[in-house]
Design brief:
The protein is α/β, with parallel strands linked by helices. It is 42% helix and 16% strand. The structure holds S-adenosylmethionine (SAM).
């Protein structure tokens, strides 16, 4: 470029032309960077929005579409992603169900075991979690042992559709509306009269909640808790 300049222009002007060219290249690179930046963040925002819609139960699959349940991870039976319930919401769920020492609490899709652990540790209940994900299963079992709660709490490494929940007096859920709908026949068949079902954020279609409460977590996010009592 310098040789090209020398032939056409006097040196000071040549210098400024080179600068102009360098400036144009910088501007071009900047535009390319902005384009990839927009593409990356556009994609990230799109993905996040998709997940939020999916979790709201209104997304890609629609609330009542039972034929096209989503899959998360390599296990096709893992049909809900791992999103933990904040501790203050866990507390409200267990309070709303009036969990006590005589209760057997089942958390279907128990994640890191936080509901099971709080039910056993703070509320004195017998608590059982059901978790398909091997890492979450191990993490929650280890925590239960570390806390010395293994006489009152346990995690089953199972698909929640295959578990016998007849012993449950309380069932906790943080799943999707479409998954609740699929679990409904099992809950209706196996749960005894008076058993409580508490669901975080997602309703049980066709059931009338006895109580609905709102909890604002420490990040200012609002959560709904639905309490159902089996007739
Ligand atoms: C939204 S998380 C809720 C975790 C926990 N109950 C809580 O409230 O913090 C849902 C959990 O369900 C588990 N899960 C999804 N499909 C499952 C299935 N078919 N059987 C057992 N667990 C499942 C996921 O691995 C995940 O940990």
């Amino acid at each position: 470029m310098a040789r090209e300049c020398k032939q056409i222009l006097a040196p000071p002007l040549c210098l400024s032309t080179s600068w102009l060219r360098a400036g144009r290249i910088r501007a071009m690179r900047h535009r390319q960077f902005r384009k990839s930046y927009r593409a990356f963040f556009g994609g990230a925002i799109g993905l996040t929005l998709g997940l939020v819609l999916l979790l709201s139960g209104e997304g890609l699959f629609g609330q009542n579409d039972l034929t096209a349940l989503p899959q998360f991870g390599s296990n096709p039976n893992k049909i809900v992603p791992y999103v933990p319930t904040p501790p203050e919401v866990v507390q409200k769920m267990l309070e709303l169900a009036k969990v006590g020492q005589d209760d057997t609490v089942y958390d279907l899709g128990s994640g890191d075991g936080r509901i099971v652990i709080m039910a056993a540790d703070k509320f004195g209940a017998h608590a059982v979690g059901v978790e398909l994900d091997p890492d979450l299963y191990k993490q929650s079992e280890d925590r239960i042992k570390q806390m010395g709660l293994d006489k009152r709490a346990e995690i089953l490494h199972e698909d929640f559709f295959n578990v016998n929940i007849r012993r449950a007096t309380v069932v906790t859920l943080y799943l999707l509306t479409s998954v609740n709908e699929r679990l409904k026949p099992m809950l209706e068949k196996q749960l005894r009269s008076g058993a409580r079902v508490v669901s975080h954020d997602f309703q049980m279609p066709g059931w009338q909640p006895e109580k609905t409460e709102e909890v604002v977590d420490k990040n200012g996010l609002s959560h709904k808790v639905y309490l159902y009592v089996r007739p």
